[in-house]
Amino acid sequence: xxHHVTLLPGDGIGPEVTAATVQVLEATGVEFKWDKHRIxxxxxxxxERASLPADVPASIRNTRVALKGPITTPVGKGFxxxxxxxxxxxxxxxxxxxxxxxxxxxxPFAEVDLVTFRENTEGLYSGIENxxxxxxxxxxxxxxxxxxxxxxxxFCFEYARQNGRKRxxxxxxxxxxxxxxxxxxxxxxxxxxxxxxxxFDDRIIDNxxxxxxxxxxxxxxIVTTNLFGDIISDxxxxxxxxxxxxxxxxxxxxxxxxxAVHGSAPDIAGLNVANPTALIRSAVMMLRxxxxxxxxxxxxxxxxxxxxxxxCLTADVGGxxxxxEFADHVADRVASIAGTS
Length: 341
Description:
Isopropylmalate Dehydrogenase; globular; 11 helices
């Protein structure tokens, strides 16, 4: 049975890393029917369309799954983040960011294996901002709801149980933000009682950042609110080699979007030098979501083997291969493992 998937190449290096990822996916032997020709972000604006054209969420509502390349988000002006728009439009409340060590990448820590669960639709990213022109005062409201807190915390615990994880750490700032972070923490403690097989604890956000750069091996699953999750997930990516090698997914009750979490790197767009590893690893998450477990395992192994031998890596991780050469190499390994060559 073919899987219908919305394909969103994105901006900058997006089309290149997306093409590489599709090549690797198709080497698994799994059949895909791609809903292509959907533009978003800068490319859409340049075509005099909305940054998130209505046909894009409509396509995802139809396919229920999307694979998305990186998007350029203007800083301080311009259109609202397409990523935020998609998450809110489709109620993709769980941002799931696994960070696991790849062989061959030199990092301060070995055997890092963390998953961050970030609430994706509220908090300081709710977009509730006000500006008093007369007094020159800007306000931003961090909206935390019981419903939003309960579902992301429960999502984390369910993931931990289903994947054999043993510990959940809730991150907050309840010592200062006693109402918003306080409610999130109280809800976490209540839900934890339903999962006696999983160890539960909590950390204040600033202390957690220190703990992660000193002893990341102490932690397993981390659940937190939107802004804190944004910060922690990038921090944990740095522990394993950076945003160029880590996966990301935005998941709701009805739809899921799998994406590269790094930027669009317009300065190297079109040069065939970008590293597609992040989007390929996100595609592994997509394969598991689609219950294509054998294919996911094959791609996972091919990536690990490619980094382990180090013969065909892109420049950002110490190699000299182009994007297309890396894709060819990984696709060949996938085909060999999956028996599709």
